[in-house]
Amino acid sequence: MKPRVLQLFTSGVNCDRELRFAFESAGATVTEMHVSKLIKNPDAIKDCDVFAIPGGFTYGDDLGAGRVLALEVERYLADALQDLHERGGSIFGVCNGFQVLVKAGLLPQIEGVKISLTWNASHRFECRWSRLLVEAPMGHILPVGSVLPAVSAHAEGQIVLAQGDADVQRLTEAGVVALRYCDKNGKPTETWPDCPSGSRGAIAGLISKSGRILGLMPHPERNLSPLHLPDRGRGAWGDGTEGIEFFRGMLAPYLAGVPS
Question: What's domain 4-254's architecture?
């Protein structure tokens, strides 16, 4: 039996087809469900291994990026998602989905750390290729120290922390920093354009202590082939396998017994 992904859908989601294709290419079966239907039937979450929230601009981001959907998830789906997590399932959010996970309190779940996402330091929408350095807490998905090229496409991707660098240190010590923006030499940086958002600590993604709740701002689902890369796989942006390996790594715990 293939890993089962339940993908959330609602008004403003616009990266669902890419994410579905990525999961299916990595070996999963994907079911999409509108949030209004899922709220009426949260038990549907019991039938999946991975719950995923795609990118987009849910509800127009009228109250802040991902805020309205985060309220729905927190109020109506929190118990079902907690049950999924406790039985070994995973929760994933990319771009707007990551904003939802943070604003619904599913990430980073570190006591005393107040975190949010706001407008990029450039004060504009940023759409550009980024390099993401894999940190130790995400080593079960991709090799630690490797670089995942992915497309950044967001206006409110800057991670802000109430206590600034002190909170960056707390998150790092707690083992919940999954990915950091880095330069072409693999060195973490907060400097634009390598870090398009200006996120504190160059943080591009967070992961739960369990390793099974993961979110990031850039889009790995847009990098599944050398033909997707800006240099068509000539080496400056990897070889085009990193994105699909990311999704295979996420699905690996649920692939047991599936014929290769």
Answer: 3-Layer(aba) Sandwich (3.40)
